[in-house]
Each structure stands twice: as C-alpha cells, then as structure tokens.
Amino acid sequence: MQEFMGLTAADITIAITVFSRRQFLKQAIGSALNQTVPVRVIVVEDCGPDAGMEAFVRQEFGSRIEYFRNPSRRGLFDNWNACLDYCKTQWLSILHDDDYLAPTFVESTIELGRHAPDCGLYFGQIVTVDESGKVLGNTRPQLEDRWQRFELADMLDVKTFPFAGIVFKTAYARAAGGFRKTSQYCGDWEMWCKIIGSYGSAQTQATMGFSRSHEGLERGTTKIHLNGRLRPLSFVQQKRIIHLLRQQGREIRFDREEFLRKAPMAVSELLRRACIWSPRMLRYHIELVRLSRAPSLPYATFQTISRVLGLPFVKAASWLAGHTGLDRRL
C-alpha cells in the first residue's frame, strides 16, 4: 500500500542537466526558477568542456540555484542518476538544458496530485519548438477531460515519451535501480515504464513544458535518427513493456506488423537517410515500409515499387528527394 501525504512544493526538486549548451541554458534554468509555485532548483553539470560554465550560471542566478559538477564524465543517462543522488526531496523533475518549463508546471503538478494522489509519476502536454523557439506542435493527443489516469498498457501505443515536464518519485526510481546508464536511446522511456507499471501515473491537459527540436547533432536523439537505430531501439522498448505486462499476468505479445499499421514507418525519414545508412540498416527500414499500412496513395506507390526494386530504387529516390523535395510529399 502506497502512502501519500499530499504533494507540495517542498516535496519537489527540478534538476537541470548541462554539458556544454550555454545558448539555451539560461532559458531552461529561468523557467525552473520562475514558477508560480517556487521549488528547489539544482544544476547538474556532467563534467563538460566549458570551464566557465559554473561561473556563468552563478553570475546569472546566484544563490537561487545549487550547482553540482560531476568529478568525471558520467554520460547522458548516468547523469540523471547523479540528479537522483543530489535530490533531497521525495519528487524530482529532470530538465534538459535546451528544454524549458511552462510557468505553471509545478502548480499543475500539485493540482494533478490532488486528483490522483496515489501515483508514482505525473506528466502533461508538451509543446515541441525549434531552435529559435518557434512552436512546431503538441506531442501528445488532447485529452477529453482535464486529467486522466495513464496505465502501462497505454505505453504500447506511444511512439515516444517526450522528456520535459515529468515529475516522478525518487524512491521509486532508486528502487528500480536508477536509469540504465548504458542505454542508447530509451533510458528515460524504460524508467517511466517501470514506475508506471508498479505505481501508476496520471496526466493533465495543462501544458507542462517545451521540448526543443534540433536539426544538428546537439541531441543524442538526433544521432539515433541519423544512424537508423531509432525504430529498432523503440521496438526493443515495446518488448520491455510487454515483458512488464506479462509479469502482471497480462497475455500480450509483440506484433510488429500491428504496431506499423498504427504508426507507419515514415517514408520521408527513409528518403532523407538512405544515402548515409548502411545497406543492412537500409534493408531493415525498407522492410518496415513494406509492413506499414499506407496512409496515402503516394506512400502506397512508393511501397509497391520499393518492394519490387529494393535497395537501388530507394537510394535513387533518396537522391531525387534531396534535389526535388519529394520526401516532404510522402
């Protein structure tokens, strides 16, 4: 039986992780400090190359934040474990240095905790923005009500789980062994599934944070996109979810074709990346396109031709897309 005495601001820490991105850090820290309901804010630097980073942050924010610097580089996911180490409160929210929070993030979390007081994780709507801050769209579907429960089985229909604006109970994350420090992509996703599977979660309709999209290599996720490992690693996480559900007595199997019918492989991504992917990775993604449910006639046409002509056709189409913008129409 879980005990819940009521979620308050004194129970929450926001930890901003940083390595080298000064250009976004001021906005990230400012969004954590300028909440309508103030909470403890810490900055956790993963032994980055910028020797002046701590001085820069302290000059900007002074005693309003606590600054920690790892003695040696721990890597993306293990730095989140460092955030757990430095957290003194029952609840923690980790914020990337290039993302930022809505001013009512903490206020919305506390309100959600009143509606669903027995959960291990809380989250809400996330808005994706580009590097300049221009809004690209919401990353989650709109809810029918102001809030709702979110179960582990619901994660099977989730392609990604945006990071900003999530609050989780630190004791539960520690009990799960912390974040998998060797993870290539799904370390956060995997942790959220463990917490949700054991303790439940709830989401609010309120906007909680803003996730920044990059065209360059500022984010590890972008590198995963570029080398073609995003889909394979996502499928691995889907299998982890099913394993957790089976431990709960649910008879579920992983059906890649069913998943691709719901979330077809993006031909636009295939065309953009075909010239740089290895033949093995390219054949893998061509097969994903073949198994996908075609959302449009151009997609179906590409699907049919690629099924017959295979890798040479896709490479030629990728070259053509780079010169004509074909990838944006599929």
The rounded distance between the terminal residues' Cα atoms is 50 Å
Following the backbone from N to C, one meets helices and strands in this order, namely EHEHEHEEHEEEEHHEHHHHHHH
Q: What name is given to the CATH topology of the largest domain?
A: Spore Coat Polysaccharide Biosynthesis Protein SpsA, Chain A
**What's the CATH H-level superfamily name of the largest domain?**
Spore Coat Polysaccharide Biosynthesis Protein SpsA, Chain A
Essential attributes:
single chain, 330 residues, alpha/beta, Spore Coat Polysaccharide Biosynthesis Protein SpsA, Chain A, 2 domains, ten-stranded mixed β-sheet, 13 helices
Describe this structure as you would to a colleague:
The chain has 330 residues and is α/β, with parallel strands linked by helices. The chain has two domains: 9-214, Spore Coat Polysaccharide Biosynthesis Protein SpsA, Chain A, CATH 3.90.550.10; 260-329, no CATH class. It contains 13 helices and ten strands. A hairpin with a 5-residue loop joins β6 (121-129) and β7. α6 (187-199) runs parallel beside α8 and α11 crosses α12 (297-309). The mean pLDDT is 88.
